[in-house]
Write a structure and sequence with these properties.
Elements lengths: L2 H13 L16 H7 L5 E2 L10 E6 L2 H12 L6 H11 L8 E4 L4 H7 L3 H13 L8 E3 L17 H7 L4 E3 L7 E9 L3 H12 L4 E9 L2
Parallel strand pairs: 2-7, 3-6, 6-7
Antiparallel strand pairs: 1-2, 4-5
């Protein structure tokens, strides 16, 4: 995203009133009524039986307003919605994870250059602000060798094997992870391949345990 586009977007967000991305009601990009409706079924436990995670949970299923919120954040650059998305994520975190460190799942460098921000980092920052948990955005890095021709993970119709292949060798963790308890943060979990690959790298770097937290889960 170029500088001019960023300035224009931020100006629009400041000047124009906020409207809920779900119902169009005024004063908030994500209103309490839509959040309550999306969370009526409760948080979504993510199956980690094939992943190197101790547990993982999402605030919502990836449908309806939850899906719209993710789209508006990632693809239209509505960063102001991130703190509102982080609030329900903070609520579904287990209380015994208070001493864990929040680590956002990094973007592929090409995606970061295109988008200008990492949505997972914005969400992790929001969760950290609400829970007083430490956020470490430099512990895990996305590498150039990640395959990009498969497209966006959450929108792709590729097979589970393709998704796994897409994230092999996608991340590099700092040795500062040694002995740490970590909660990986992402916007959407689909097959879990991305989060699982990130967890493996953190464990390889010495992390003691890794859990997952997402805004939504596409089952």
């Amino acid at each position: 995203m170029n500088v001019l586009a960023t300035v224009v977007r931020k100006t629009i967000e400041i000047v124009l009133p906020a409207y809920c991305v779900g119902c169009g009601a005024g004063r908030s990009y994500l209103c309490e009524r839509c959040v309550a409706h999306a969370g009526a079924a409760g948080p979504v436990d993510i199956n980690v039986s094939e992943l190197t995670l101790d547990s993982a949970v999402a605030a919502f299923a990836h449908t309806g307003v939850a899906r719209t919120a993710v789209h508006r954040l990632k693809y239209t650059g509505l960063r102001a919605i991130a703190p509102l998305m982080a609030a329900p994520m903070a609520r579904v975190l287990r209380s015994d994870l208070a001493g864990y460190t929040l680590v956002p799942v990094p973007l592929h460098p090409k995606r970061f250059r295109e988008r200008g921000f990492n949505q997972a980092a914005l969400l992790a920052s929001g969760v950290g602000a609400l829970t007083a948990m430490t956020v470490n955005g430099g512990l895990l890095r996305g590498l150039l060798r990640r395959r990009t021709q498969l497209g966006h993970q959450a929108d792709s119709a590729n097979s589970r094997l393709d998704r796994r292949a897409n994230v092999v060798g996608a991340f590099e963790a700092d040795r500062d992870a040694d002995g740490m308890d970590i909660v990986l943060v992402d916007d959407v979990v689909t097959t879990g391949s991305t989060m699982g690959s990130a967890a493996r790298e953190l464990l390889r770097a010495g992390a003691r345990s890794v859990r997952g937290l997402a805004f939504s889960h596409e089952r």
